[in-house]
Design a protein that fits this description.
Elements (H helix, E strand, L loop, with lengths): L1 H29 E6 L5 E6 L2 H21 L4 H22 L6 H14 L11 H4 L4 H11 L6 H26 L5 E3 H12 L1 H5 L7 H21 L2 H17 L4 H18 L3 H14 L3 H11 L9 H9 L16 H8 L4 H21 L1 H16 L22 H7 L3 H25 L4 H5 L8 H16 L8 H5 L2 H9 L2 H10 L3 E3 L1
Antiparallel strand pairs: 1-2, 3-4
Helix pairs in contact: 1-12, 1-20, 1-22, 2-20, 3-7, 3-8, 4-6, 7-8, 7-10, 7-24, 8-24, 10-11, 10-12, 11-13, 12-13, 12-22, 15-16, 15-17, 19-20, 20-24
Amino acid sequence: MLQTLHSIAKKIVVIMGGLMLALLFCAQFLILSHPVLDDREKMRLQFNGPAFWVTLVIVVLLLWFVGRWLLRFPAGALFGILAAVFTITAVYIIFRVPPMIKGDAAVVAENAGKFLRGDYAGLEKGHYLDFWPAQLGLVAWDGLLFRISDSVRILFIANIGFSLINCFLQWQIAAALFRDEPGQACAAEKLTILLSYAFLPLLFFVLFAYGFVPGLCFAQAAFLSLIRFSKAGGVVDAVLCPVFLSLALFFKPNYLITAIALGITVMLLFAETRKKAYPAILAALILVTVFQNAGLYAYYEKVSGMEIRGDVPRTLTMAMSVLPEYGETERPAGWYNGYEYDAYVSVDYDRERGAQLGREKLAETMSYWVQNPGKAIRFFGEKWLTTWCDPMYESVWIGPLVDDGAAHFDPVMESLYAGDYAYLVAEKWMTALAVLVYGGAALFWFPWNRRRFRDAAIPTVSLYTLLFLLGGVMLHLISETKSQYAFPYVYCLIPYASCSMANSRLFVKRAEKNGKAGDNS
């Protein structure tokens, strides 16, 4: 019975995920969501033009030429060389742009500095951390780093370390999933290393001091631990999976999607293998999720003498994200527009009244969409496209923009943060790369080859990434969205896209010609 349920569930997830990836591939292939680099956070939808076609050909040719020697090049050396290039470039960026952060990240950093001085006013009713106490994990992290240096650059430098770890975890995930022989690095691993570093938003996100990069790091570590446990059954990996999940939630509560995807994957693995350890792992994942940051909240309540009441009611956030229009913001459909804040203030920060107000507004708005299906299609279509078709994922927009008054003395950095040639080149590069990642991942999972699917070539544990992606698509369709939120879901697809590329005729033929598919890592 369990085997039957596992088989049905696996096929449903693969088909749904494959279709979503195919849809994302078509959308990114045709459409570009281009951010206007000013404080309006405005996105402009446009069709990809000749510059994209030329860049796509260049990227494919580069992969073709790299493939001539990639299969013989040691994976460890490749990782080390690219890590050095990444680090040097990231340090260059950090010290060649003004040391500034903005938005919520700036408020978090400001409160972290105040906490170090014993000022906990940010927790008072109506203040930022009273609205979003889930940010306290990031406040604690920023405060720890500010003990080393009071410059915000220390936050950026820490992000470099987490970015390198992210690339390393991508490599290890590919190795755990696709390596055939111990000690022998396969082509999929090497392509994963290459594409992980070539994914430029990871580089620009070193200036995003918002728990984004470290949260992804620990989410990936939790997944890697689950992969290793599914293959070897080690107790350490069983323990590390929920531990790493707790750290991901510590930095960014949005990684609740990770918890859900891991939980469903564990249930599928249990249905497949009936190993008694999986229910214990599932229980630990649930406990970590339910009691996330409870100890941190208790600590700050003790030292501040104030009650931490919880975040703004989720219903207000959902109501905000489906409003056809609100205020004078120029942001795209479904992006932050201020309703959530204004509504919460209107009920004097009362959570129960706020939740009720959110439910009423949500019901009213959904009734409007039902009565206006054409407008609903345009609204949610724009919301989906602006979330998933920005290949830069706002990684430059969150930095020191020239339009915000940031003074740049480096011409390359000025061009990048003004949205000029440097930005446009990076955007075209990433559009081509995003198309290849979506397309390659779709080929990996989509059961176009029935014999391959029947032979269980798709490991059950890999369904986590599909569940993570599907959960992200659903979440940001019904809740607040930004294109920066899409980055983790797309970045995690790289190992699977790399596997599809490695199994293509180009790489297979070269592997046969060289007499092997990999070499010592």
